[in-house]
Amino acid sequence: MIEFLQHKEDVTAREIIAVQQPAYIKEAELIGFDGIPALQETAKDIQASREQFAGYRKDGRLIGVISYEKNMHHLTICRLVVHPDGFRKGIGRA
Predict the structure, then answer these.
(1) Residue 53 structural domain
(2) How many of the other CB atoms lie within 10 Å of CB of 72?
(3) Residues 64 and 88: beta-carbon distance below 8 Å
(4) What is the C-alpha separation between 4 and 18, in angstroms, rounded?
(5) pLDDT tens-digit map of 56-89
(6) What is the CA radius of gyration of the chain?
């Protein structure tokens, strides 16, 4: 199920990090580069973000996250991450 996330809340920010970190670790392994800036983000960074967040939950567990910024008539996707447990299951597409 897809829902908007209240990323300013500590628990939610930590949930986002728990999805983002393993996803970017896997990406870093695949591309052979561990300098991806999002790998260094903390829950405090997520809470301070001006992005809007939505997430995909399966059995109550956050498993996918998208964030975006909306400016007038433009929508910019800032991040789209799926926990490795959810790879190849259509979560990113959803």
Answers:
(1) 2-86
(2) 5
(3) no
(4) 17
(5) 999 999 999 999 999 989 999 999 999 999 999 9
(6) 13
